[in-house]
Amino acid sequence: MRLLTTTAAAICFAILTGCASTAVVEPVDAKAHQIERVCIVKNPKAEVADLVEVLRVGFTRHNIRTATYEKSQLPTSCDYTLTYIARQEWDFATFMSYAQLQIHHGGSVIASAEYNHSGFDTEKWSRTATKIDPLVDELLAGFPMPPTSAGLSGTGPARPLDQTNDVYTQLLKLDELRQKGVITQQEFDEEKKKVLSGN
Asked: pTM of the prediction?
């Protein structure tokens, strides 16, 4: 039974000539769903190469662990799964024009987010994190971010861009080591705290 209290939030991103980029988010009901881990189902048809990386860092920002799997290899232990769609368009350069995220549990969609761009503003060439981070943060609004992780948001001022990218890389490397069994969950958590605190 779906216990989610439906909350739709319309987000208008900053642009030059009106609201050309919009998002509609139906967040997770954190009281009904105490999510600690999400399995991301790979979508080979998604056209945005760095989307999964941005999603993984976004969920980590809310203290939710992630693992990526092919659909055919999805373990039965995955209580919560994330599926995604992403499309690109061309206008002097490629840019992400559409993205859809859905979190599933027990055969039902319990939360979703959708980004859509239409218009002629320069915001469309923004990096993937700038577009997706606000969606993830709204989607997981019921899972507060530790103060030290706020700088991982593409819209947050806490870290310079090059430092943020370095944190992204470190977290992904740590998560890869954890998934391969090179480090334990406890070691991963300890190292993650160090990365997020800048130590």
From this structure: 0.68
**Dihedral angle of Cα 1, 85, 178, 136, to the nearest 10 degrees:** -70
Q: Report whether 32 contacts 22 (CB < 8 A).
A: no
DSSP tally for the chain: helices H, then strands E:
4, 7
Tell the CATH topology of 12-144: Rossmann fold (3.40.50)
What are the residue ranges of helices labelled H in 24-160?
51-61, 128-139
Per residue in 60-112, pLDDT (tens digit) is: 999 999 999 999 999 999 999 999 999 999 888 888 999 999 999 999 999 99
Q: Where are the domains of the chain?
A: 12-144
Instruction: Pick the closest to residue 4 from 82, 104, 119 (CA basis).
Output: 104
Instruction: Sort residue 111 into left (φ over 0), alpha (ψ -120 to 50) or beta.
Output: beta
Q: What is the pLDDT of residues 20-57, one digit of tens each?
A: 678 899 999 999 999 999 999 999 999 898 999 999 99
